[in-house]
Amino acid sequence: MRIATYNVNGVNGRLPVLLRWLAETSPDVVCLQELKAPQEKFPEAAINAAGYKAIWHGQKSWNGVAILSREAPIKELRRVLPGDEEDAHSRYIEAQVAGIVIGCLYLPNGNPAPGPKFDYKLAWFKRLQTHAQTLLDLGTPVILTGDYNVMPTELDVYKPERWVEDALFRPETRAAFKALVEQGWTDAIRTLYPDEKIYTFWDYFRDAYGRNAGLRIDHFLLSPPVVPRLLKAGVDKNVRGWEKTSDHAPVWIEIKNK
After folding, report:
1. Rounded (10°) angle between helices 116-136 and 171-181
2. Surface-to-core class of residue 258, CB atoms within 10 Å of its CB (0-12 exposed, 13-18 middle, 19+ buried)
3. How many domains does one find in the chain?
4. pLDDT digits (tens, 9 = 90+) for 47-87
5. Predicted structure pTM score
6. CDD domains given for it (predicted)?
7. Would you call 147 a catalytic residue per the annotation?
8. Phi/psi at 84 (5° precision)
């Protein structure tokens, strides 16, 4: 079973890229972030025609998350991260697919830091930690995946010295991710590739993709029951080189069917 996450950076503007990637790789489950489309503008018909069912939580111009499934039914569990009733951002959606609880998330960027946006990022992280612990306590297979907007270590960023003051790499952000993982989650990519430079995002500027000046900010965190099932993980880096593509590449894991 292949599960993928992909920050599409605008689901309608990048729809040809998304459909091409789906056709070429046929993942079983896909988590999308940064739809940048209101609820009624999600391209459901095109997604269905590509062979996928979908649930989504849209938002005009910004944010937005979705979960697609090729064969297994999608049972939506929630579409808001608990902990702040006034938070109107569409950044989290959760469903049960093929016996696995899958949380698709788009964590706030937080720049400029320090400032209100960074405070919101850290507060969102705390809410995620609280909910993640609740999910762990279920003792069932859970996967939390998406764009976390954090590079956990210096290995995860090209020229880390240039990112010291950035909200994605500040000590507070990295500490929040570390605390999340230490609840009992497993970083799938780092488990299989502990020492390799692996990036999932390349800026549009200064030929970042051509120079491989990237960041690893899209992550898979696995609950203990999923870890023994992990077979493979990777990044479809070539997709970042396609025309009119996202600045992120799709990231995926393969797990044993139960």
Report:
1. 10
2. exposed
3. 1
4. 999 999 999 999 999 999 999 999 999 999 999 999 999 99
5. 0.98
6. ExoIII-like_AP-endo (cd09086)
7. yes
8. -155, 100
